[in-house]
Amino acid sequence: MELLSALERELQQLDEKSLRRRLRVAETPCAPHVTVDGRDMLAFCSNDYLGLASHPLLVEALREGALHYGVGSGASHLISGHSRAHALLEERFAEFLAPHLESPRALYFCTGYMANLAIVSALAGRDADLFSEELNHASLIDGARLSRANLHVYPHGDTEALEGLLKNSKAKNKVVVTDSVFSMDGDLAPLPALLALCEQYGACLVVDDAHGFGVLGANGRGALEHFGLRSPYLVYMGTLGKAAGVGGAFVAAHETVIEWLIQRARPYIYTTAAAPALAHALMASMDIIGGAEGAARRAHLDALIAQLRGALKLQRWELFPSHTAIQPVIIGPNDETMRAAGVLYEQGFLVPGIRPPTVPPDTARLRVTLSAAHTAQDVGALASAVNLLETFA
Questions:
Q1: 18-47+292-392: in CATH 3.90.1150.10
Q2: Packing angle between helix 292-311 and helix 276-289, nearest 10 degrees?
């Protein structure tokens, strides 16, 4: 087949540019110490920021949920798949985010990708002006394409450029979309300034807080709590397979926005609901995130971030200025980055090499992610290995 031949040629080109991705098989639960492809590894690549993915209370809650609700929902939410577990979890999210939203209501989704597709495509139609941050996650980019809105991309963190775009917009419906914590750089969007612009020019602000929910803020309420924000203009998305340790996502916003998503968001309407047992397990996760244990885990994670940043003594490579759990080490060339990741792998460290198109050309990097489940000894070992590697690379 000509198609197969063409695909083989394209795959060969990926190999030549050191861009082919590879699947690895994890044989143990998500944790710092894992077995991958039969090898014992110290992992610095998961988004399990609070170390809850294998927490005994969550494991027990999932078992309890499966016994009570079974292992599948059986239908979409609007047919018969919306269980009591889903409803209780949505009420919990609305209550949790109430300090930051007016008349809040929440909606649970199977994945964060689906949630972002739903939000953007339902809120920004053909006649809308959609303003998207340059480094937004792929799900927001795809949501923008699906919406068919008039798309305007503003430079990373550039509020002056965004204001110029908003000022020139004649659209009645204006939507600004941004990550809160940027997944490849680890820096924070200037949310207070973005929200002020949205309120000034009558735009809603969609915040993808995938890497902030559960981690940022004194109570784990994410970027909105971190910055002390509250507004009816906010539409907030948080994922639940990262700091929350389970899976899925939720959208929290004014009750009218949520009702509109129920009526018009195709990724919500036309998919089978996630297993109710997952929602039941997430209630236990929320107990931890909002309680004393969650606060202690966030404090430990902050200490590990400071330790790593203090211990890395790089000369040629660059540690990106991030104070979140995402700590990118910028190397540049794809081949050098993948060699570095390979050497670390042989030494027992699982650290991914990230290349274009996920990041811009010539900014390939080692993407280190920290978890509250790591120890100071784990972080010290990684820092020593990276320092030595750069010296001889």
A1: yes
A2: 70
